[in-house]
Amino acid sequence: MSASFDQIVAEAKSWIGVKFKKGGRDRMGVDCIGLLVNVGRSCGIEINDTTEYSFDPEPAKFQQLVYGQTDPMPFQGLKPGSIILLRQSIFPMHTGILSRDAHGRLSVINANLHKRQVVEQPYTDWKDMVISLRSYKGVV
Description:
Layout: H1 5-13, E1 25-26, E2 29-30, H2 32-42, H3 59-67, E3 70-72, E4 83-88, E5 91-100, E6 106-112, E7 117-122, E8 130-136
């Protein structure tokens, strides 16, 4: 069974309000990678996972976790349900899932360390930090 981009968005939205927890992998607490893992798995996508990472920049490990299990997407059209990779300083260190808010504006659902929970924020808050756009493998 293939998941759809709409299913990805609906599942990601169901995580809004879940507390942030480094290495968290359930609704008691989740980090940005945990959000991607749980959303994907809930939509029937097989994902390898690890919590063996830190808050320090580890670009190779971060990219291995995400790039090896996703497909690249073009930036034209920024499709809700896509995975967005974000830099902090110069390193890829954060992820989210593109969505649309209640007003139809492009948004990013992410497990936000500073907000201490999963939130939906305007894409414009993140657009200058985007380094890559990806999709879960097999999403149609």
